[in-house]
Amino acid sequence: MVALEDLKQEAKNVLEGGTVKYIIGYKKPAVGFMAVPAFFHKPEDLDALVWDPTCVHNLVLFLKDEKKKKLGQKEPDERPVGIVVKGCDSRAVNVLLQENYIDRENVYILGVSCGKTGMVDLKKVRKYFKGKIISQIDFNENESFTVTTTEGKVEVPAADIFAVRCTECITASPVIHDVLLGGDSVRTPENPFGSLEEMESKSQGQKWDFWQEQLTKCIRCYACRSICPMCYCDECVVDTINFAVYPDTPAEEKAQKIKWVEKSPTTSENFIYHMVRAIHLAGRCVDCAECERACPMDIPLRFLNKKLEKESKKLFDYDVGYDTEIPSLISSFRDEDPEDFIR
Amino acid sequence: MENNHYIPKVARIINIKNEVEGARAIKTFRTQFAGDDGFTHACGQSAMLSVLGKGESMISISSSPIEAEYLQFSVLKTGRVTSALHEMKVGDMIGIRGPYGNGFPIDKWTGKNLIFIGGGIGLAPIWSVLQTALGKKSDYGNLTLIYGSRTSKDLVFKEELRGIKQEMAVHLSVDNEEDRWEEYVGFVPNNLLDKNPSPENAVAITCGPPIMIKFVIKNLQDLGFKDDQIYTTVENKMKCGIGICGRCNIGPHYVCKDGPIYSWAELKKLPQEY
Amino acid sequence: MEKILTKKALPQWLIKLNAYQIYAPVKKENHWSYEALDKPESIRLDHLNTIQSPKMIIFPQREVFFEFHNAEGNTLVMKEPASESSATVIFGVRPCDAAGVTHQDKVFDGHFKDLYYWKRRNQTILVGLACNTPPSPHCFCLSVGGSPHSTAGFDILMTELEDSYYVESFSKKGDTLISLAGDIFSTPKENDKKDKEKAHSDSEKKLKRHIKDLETVPPKLKDMFDSPLWEEESLSCIQCGICTYLCPTCHCFDINDEKDSSSPLSGKRVRTWDNCQFPDFTMHSSGHNPRPDRASRLRQRIMHKFNYFVTNYKAYQCTGCGRCIDKCPVGIDIIEVLEKVRDYGK
């Protein structure tokens, strides 16, 4: 189990010494109990740093902002950014390294292990503690959490309130890090794709009906895209314009940008949006499930990405975010690949 | 629905003139409505032009309200809608809705010397008020135009400029030396200092690229022009044109409805978000 | 008009309103949402805040302005869609959401009237439910000029009593709804009125969140355009559209032409919601963007709601519903931001 004081000390060491320019971590919100992303620029700010089962965010996402900010600066501070990273998040770092989006020296990784459990699912917590006011959730040494409410502390079996993705996790400790807190934690879930089974057992018609209902709800706020560390393209099929426009970009180029998807949140347009996104995440998604958590309309987006993760494993024996030296799945072809249309 | 502001009126393109060729092409379109249009505009107002299937674009009306036969728009090819407009031919139909915006307060300028300072396509919004002043010359004092662009090929209204030289002072400029260019070489703000117009009983009206406007205003102030003697136009991305869709605001003002014409005295109080 | 309706009789009332399209909050697995109510007996009025406010019904996310066709011989045909809207009753509306509608009314009723909005709005009857307990942990209506039992925007406000509703009508439309089922309503007794008033005053005490001295914020914002606060507060903002799309007062929209897949010459001009947090919202065709970063976009959201709107319409463009706080994926809390503005430089 990670001792928060150790994490604070490690963070303080690198921030005080100037090894990193700032640290991206978690803090408590003004009201409520779910941790929120926090940016620590001064060592004394680190008193507010927290690490508990509510640190759900994949902070790797903020490396996109950092990269864009640096591109706009004439003399950028080249020191790395410190970042608190869980097991799943660490694989997102690896994918960005593999795709040469970031360099290893851009980031100082404070790895934290989730131990025997993982992150809570706010929806499950709310259901479990209906109406009660929660102030704190903590890890335990065993497979449970301690939840503090106004009525006192209770121990809750992890299975009752933690995120489905965490039950299928095989990397509860970061696979890449500069320091590792909480030690290695090896997990061998019985069925890493178990959550897909019910969906897979449905008929084609049932699946169609299910997704039609789900995706019709989409309001196209793009929170799923915005919160995804992998969605970093300047040019996205759903945007009305291309953001990589400069004063000398020819009018023709701008005028000819194809509108693949209309802005209207109709079922057909929503399908195109989510299908394109799912395909673009095949072999890249690390199952942090932030898309599903961020979705205000409760669309079970994780299904789409998890299914493609399973297909990648089944068809190509490809695991996402472990090896930064191999070519990325969607940009490579191997002789033993089962389909030959690309040859 | 009666008075539905979102439905454009249909107009025919009756004339197209190529002002500038190349990557930053400019064409001037004259349009006529099919029937009685009820469309009356003030100098400096704009209209929303539609190419159905492509969308809409807010373009300033460069013809004077005293010209009743047609509406004129000078359009820089820059995106989806303007590129489609550039593809159109005489006889083609476009949609027009408007007019929108506040217009220049020309009633307040009677008897004053008017100095027009423009850069590139920025002459278009100025052109309607310049033409109006020329049409009622006795109402105003001296008229002066200081206008320039990157090269002589990028100047708009080349023929018309030759024509008005008989009636008012016209000082042209290009950014760099060119063969057979006999007028000023340098940026518009510098040409302004060079021509040194007097602020006495004068109003300066400027439009052009944001960076040019910034230096023109600074130089006008150096020449002694007061903030309420300087007028400029603001451009922001627009969709509805009627102050509802929420994207063209600078502070509490919607440029489409409360602008686009501001005196520097008014504009300097607003956030620099344009 | 003031009446009493027993809880049991509520479905009977709805049955009498069969000439209207009725929307009501419906419980989903993890949330509540407004949906067309097909079975009056399934009505439940114990709802928490719905994910979307009734904005989605009165100002739908997508609306066709007109259909167009570029016909042979260079003629353009533009045709408004046939009217589809009928008289609509929205049931169980929370006072914050009704206040949101009144704010939108101001915007769409400016110098230029938005006829598409008004066509729908004029046919909509809002039947509210006072919040005896706050429907969200982040409710703060009292701080922005509202209250858990505010009547603003309502045709009818219902207040839950022990086993009945205290029903107050404030408009002719509301009176009509009651008279359609006149016999199931009874006249309130003196103690009903007292119970209602007690429920109202108690409800105010149950609100957990407040912003003190909010009235000092608008004048302060006037001088905070260039403040570093916007950068600090927006660091974790991911630029999604949740806060604005779920907001009962946000009204910004886009207009686009959608071509028919069958013919490139035909299509529709369509209005869709848009929002100030998307980078393309203000980007010019040249690539120039007057609001180039997260900080300027968060600033616009706060400035619009608590400075510009106050200047233009003498009201905060916020009704304290708490949706933007509850649903922000990175925990940006508008109350916290406003408090920082209030205390800035102190």
Q: Tell me about the largest β-sheet of chain C.
A: 7 strands, mixed
Parts with pLDDT < 50 across at least 5 consecutive residues of chain A: none
Structural class of chain A: alpha/beta
Q: What is the overall silhouette of chain C?
A: flat
| Strand order in the sheet with the most strands of chain A | 2-1-3-4-8
Ranges of chain C where pLDDT stays below 50 over 5 or more residues in a row are: none
Calculate the mean pLDDT score of chain C and round it: 95
State the domain count of chain A.
Answer: 2
Distance linking N and C termini of chain C: 50 Å
* Secondary-structure class of chain C: alpha/beta
SSE sequence of chain A, one letter per element: HEEHEHEHEEEHHEHHHHHHH
Give the % helix of chain C: 25-40%
| Coarse shape of chain A | globular
Tally the helices of chain A.
Answer: 13
Largest interface comes to: B-C, 43 and 52 residues
Residues in β-strands, percent of chain C:
15-25%
**Multimerization state:** heterotrimer
For the secondary structure, the number of strands of chain C is 11
Task: Compute the CA-based radius of gyration of chain C.
Answer: 22 Å
Radius of gyration of chain A, in angstroms, nearest whole number: 21 Å
Structure commentary:
The complex is a heterotrimer of chains A (343), B (274) and C (346). In chain A, 32% of the residues lie in helices and 12% in strands. Chain A is α/β, with parallel strands linked by helices and 343 residues long. Chain A is globular and about 60 Å long. Chain A starts with a helix and ends in a 27-residue tail after the last helix. The longest helix of chain B has 13 residues, at 123-135. In chain B, helix 4 (188-195) runs parallel beside helix 5. The model of chain C has no long low-confidence stretch (mean pLDDT 95). Chain C has helices at residues 10-16, 55-58, 95-108, 115-121, 172-179, 190-205, 217-221, 229-234, 242-245, 294-313, 323-327, 334-343; strands spanning 2-6, 21-27, 32-36, 62-71, 75-79, 88-93, 124-129, 156-160, 164-169, 253-259, 266-273. Chain C is built from twelve helices and eleven strands. Classes of the chains: A alpha/beta (343), B alpha/beta (274), C alpha/beta (346). At the B-C interface, strand 13 of B face strand 4, strand 5, helix 4, strand 10 and strand 11 of C.
Describe, in short, the structure shown.
Chain A is of the alpha/beta class and 343 residues long. Chain A has two domains: 189 residues, no CATH class; 141 residues, no CATH class. In chain A, 32% of the residues lie in helices and 12% in strands.
